[in-house]
Task: structure prediction
Amino acid sequence: MILPRSLIFGALLSLIFLGGALLSFVWTPYDIELLAIPERLQPPSMAHWFGTDHLGRDMLSMIMMGARTSIAVALLAVGIGMGLGLPLGLLAAAKRGSLLDELIMRGNDLIFAFPSLVIAILITAVFGASAVNAIIAIGIFNVPVFARLTRGAALSFWSRDFILAARVSGKSAARISVEHILPNIANLMIVQGTIQFSLGILAEAALSYIGLGAQPPTASWGRMLADAQTLVSLAPHVALVPGFSIVLMVLGLNLLGDGLRDLLDPRLRVVRT
Result:
């Protein structure tokens, strides 16, 4: 079987940033907490491959640490969204047409009415700005995404013959959902998870850019862009490096999601010779 090109390119891009994030736990070229004002705003060189920022910190080290922050926030947010949205969607599909189904879906519509940024502002106003609150805000917004997708996918299986056979055999709706529905929609959830992961990267960067995400001294790509907005004409690299990092990371995850869709969905699988 030939793997889709989008899957290969997306996996390579994603692994580069994931590898840098994991490596930052044990090593970075420079300590990002040590300021070197005499070396501020240096262009890319052999000593500093991506240059230095306005405080003299190594940009490559900042990117590695920022990747760790972005990936952690997005991954946990997707985990919250899938962990809550998936069972809610399965429950709504199992109880389709009931009052419980209506309550679940109208609750999802209510959350959809508030974008993740608005939810983050509300949470921050109460608990303060932090990476944890950014995770909660993005995670809450992901819940209805997975719930609606799960319900729609699950409903398409409840009328299938093998589900009717399971019901005749005496299996409960909960057991059918776990044993028969969930395995058949797992590929769809995996693909959607990669898409929401990329959106989580963007959301974390946006929240950090306006000061509602990770707080200093924690490195964040959005915070790096915010610090660089007045220095673009003087030192373009301080904005280009985190900007391109966000673009490439999101591009890699989107390509990975498209590749997984082509690979896992037989209706969209392309036969190559």
Q: What stands out?
A: The chain is about 70% helix and 0% strand. The chain has a mean pLDDT of 91.
